[in-house]
Please model this.
Amino acid sequence: MMSEIQSIQWFPGHMTRTKRKIQDSLKLVEAVAEIIDARIPVSSRNPDLDQLVQSKPRIILLNKCDMADPVQTAKWIAYFQGKGAYALAVDCKSGKGLQGFMPLVRSVLADQIEAWKTKGMVGRSIRVMVVGIPNVGKSSFINKMSKSSKVKVEDRPGVTRGNQWVTIAKGFDLLDTPGVLWPKFEDPAVGEKLAFTGAVKDQIMDTEQLAGRLLELLAARYPHSLQERYKIQASDTEGKPGYELLEAVGRKRGMLISGGEIDTERAAMMVLDEFRGGKLGKITLETVK
Ligand code: G4P
Model:
């Protein structure tokens, strides 16, 4: 089956429609929550969003921080804050960090909330639009936030038809992403990182090549993770091409096919699965420049 991201690439009309929907829906909200993958904070963002939502305050949620390197996550938060955005590390699987979301939004919008009070608009809800490329955890975020406040998802007929509003607390509503926000998939380096995390389906890239590239990156950035998981010494990985690293992993795991050859395809699937499952440790593949 064709992946969501592939289909978007093939039908550019999607992009225009999503842009328009986001633009229209911006009028309905006070702020935007942009969800990104803390392991790939550059590749999991759509750079066009900066231009698109510049009129509203933005809260960047570095999600999946349970699988990301905490030192790098802290650096990325400082980086985004330096750019005038607000940033928060969260884990939408366990809910860690989410308690900081509403207080952060309220403090960002403090002047606005004060102005509503002055005008006597006491019943006015804070409304935040949730955006992000596929698989970063938007649904998980909305579900977790709505579960914690025990309110249901509702389809509120309104200005823009089909908009999904979720009340997460009294006077606090989230607007689910209006349309699919595509990643900047044309850049091969970005596509590769999205494939590492599983945001893009494997079929579009050669699995062995992909796993080999991941191993090269890990050998350069997190050699101890290869040492711990696969018992490959850093001295054996330095400067080695991906294919050799993959063979080394397969050999250590006894993945052999007839004739004593190493089953690199099986090894590749395992490496990717283990990385995606967080079994290789807390890893961030993009650093602040
Ligand atoms: P989307 O709406 O942006 O497309 O993303 P969605 O919430 O569907 O999340 C995509 C995958 O990422 C899901 O895994 C989800 O469980 C996982 N995920 C979301 N947030 C976090 C997080 O903070 N930490 C971790 N470790 N995983 C997270 P899945 O394999 O597609 O489904 P499932 O395992 O939940 O069944």
Residues 260 and 275 are 26 Å apart (CA to CA). The chain is about 45% helix and 15% strand. Residues 63-64, 66-67, 91-93, 132, 134-140 surround guanosine-5',3'-tetraphosphate (CB under 6 Å). Confidence is low (pLDDT under 50) at residues 150-161.
